[in-house]
Amino acid sequence: MTFTPTELEVEGAAGGEAGRDGAPAAPPASGRRLARAFLRDRAAVACGVYILLIILMAVAAPLLVKISGYGPLEFDQDAVDPNLGGIPLGAAGGMGADHWFGVEPGNGRDLFARIVYGARVSMLIAISATLLTTFLGVVFGLIAGYFGGRVDMVISRVMEFLMAFPALIFMIAVLSALPAENRQFLLVLVISFFGWPYLARIVRGQTMSLKEREFVEAAKASGATSAQIIFKEILPNLASTIIVMTTLAVPGYVGTEAGLSFLGVGVVPPTPSWGQMIASSVPWYAVDPAYFLIPGAFLFLLVLSFTVLGDRIRRLLGEGMA
């Protein structure tokens, strides 16, 4: 479930790379032009709106649960029928004025409260892992691609070593052996540890190409240091690729967190998690399908929205550089 970009995606995303004639890349299209193109794309706008709503929902989770009247850890035994094994009372899993999305079977916890707090957990882990992965991937990719030689050999062997592992299996093994405390922090570290080589490989390849261009040679001739060349000459030409790959990485990490929680090695109960909720709904899907469908729909739409948005951004940046 760790995001693995393909070479075809890299080529499509690399709109910011320097031109083939050795000159620096053409300046990116104006912000207004890209904004107009984005707003004309209905799919991109719809995905962006949904992602924004999820982010706002996650940020405003404490306020929303105060309005709804139930917290994510509160039990409402009056909302379930103990004579029928804890099945929610009412239609569609107990949906109504008191419980907008219904309640969990067996314990009566409010689904809406757990959905909004689950969004907070999922977004926090996914975005934090993406930021850390991007930082590590860009830094190590730039260093390996620019300096080459033994430095490149060592970093490349580490990347190949990590990429050779079946990431999900080792994530499960590592997280099973770690303590339950600070599980969200540990999830970010483990996901990032196995995720950074994929971006680093892309950055390394493009850096190796860019460092041979004339504008880099001119910077060297002018007395620029290696750090100045890397961060002022090469890195700006990788901006488009990094933006696209970062956008496409987020849904992969959302899915990874949900999958690990589904398998019982992710977020520890009673902390809400969409993957955890889906796992808990399996025994109940025949009698209360809403308990499965609601978190499943939120997770599916979030992953789909990030994926489509990343693809649209790649296309827009590619057209803007053309």
UniProtKB/TrEMBL annotation:
Parts of the chain that traverse the membrane: 43-65, 121-147, 159-178, 184-203, 234-254, 290-309
Chief localization: membrane
Name of the molecule in the record: ABC transporter permease
CDD domains xrefs: TM_PBP2
GO biological-process terms attached to the record: transmembrane transport
Keyword Lipoprotein: no
UniProt record similarity statement: Belongs to the binding-protein-dependent transport system permease family.
Topology term for the membrane: Multi-pass membrane protein
Region spans: Disordered: 1-27
Keyword Cell membrane: yes
Subcellular location: Cell membrane
Source organism phylogeny: Bacteria, Bacillati, Actinomycetota, Actinomycetes, Glycomycetales
Cellular component, GO annotation: plasma membrane
Domain ABC transmembrane type-1: 119-310
Keywords recorded for this protein, A-Z: Cell membrane, Membrane, Transmembrane, Transmembrane helix, Transport
Highest taxon above the source species: Bacteria
